[in-house]
Amino acid sequence: MAKLINKVELGDPSTKKQNFIDVNLKLLCCRYWYLDLWDCHDMVYPFWRIYWNKNEGGELTLQDKVYKMEPDFLYIISPFTSFSTRYLKRHEFDSGIHVSGKNLSERHNEAYYERKYLIHFFTHFNLGTPFDNVFPGIFKVELSDHLKERLIYLTERLKVENHDFKLTFNLKLQAFIKEAISNIGVELWKTINIDERVLVVLRFIEANIEEKLSNSELAELVNMAPNSFSRLFKEEMHVTLHSFIQNRKIAKACEIFEHTNETIEGISFKLGFSDRYHFSRVFKAITGLSPALYKSGRYTS
Fold first, then answer.
1. Architecture of domain 26-189 in CATH?
2. Helix residue spans in the chain (DSSP H)
3. Taking 70 as the threshold, does the pLDDT of residue 300 lie above it?
4. pTM for the full predicted model
């Protein structure tokens, strides 16, 4: 037994250091809807999604792979994944984003709506660096009994309240998300073991995302030549340094759109773009939507 407390401020009696990885979970939305149209094509967004359908008939498509959504599974979609959705009972559009449906409430007879519509739960969130920079993909996770219990609680509460959530709901939603993503598999989380020099730069980018960041400035942080660091970054992150910075700036823009009334011009200036038009081109290239459409919220889920 250790005789001295190693870290007084932590109350830790051991002399052995422990290393933890912080997960900076930020909730963006959580809803429980009935859908009669879900024709969404080539959606690309800078946040995670968890989808669950209570009944069959929904499909997700990633490149040439089609996922026929089953009620016993969650479908987790990582940031910047280009994917499409479809509700087979009413499929009308082969391009664009078309959604029709409403929030389920206590007033609805859910059994009746389940026969006529697609009953759809979804939540969007970010996990922070480096977890938001994993490979794009759709991950199918079986619903354990514990996850089912949490999901029942969340969907029942969403029928009562879907605006100002109490602390208990927030805690249970966060626990549900963390438990769900922990079941994806170790292959997804290889980015947490990346080179320490890249991690230093990732943290710097997150803290200074509103600045104009150059390759040479970032390479200097870790005492490397710009070309050498660019190669290292691409090897570790599987994306160029320039593309990564653009993606994170657009992710920040989406966050600002979600939570403020900031103008498109204001956001483009705040994030270091030369003008609104440059910002709009980059935003659409990454998300598939114009900033105006994203800001309007009409793209839905």
1. Sandwich (2.60)
2. 110-116, 145-160, 167-182, 196-207, 215-221, 226-237, 241-259, 264-270, 276-287, 291-296
3. no
4. 0.70
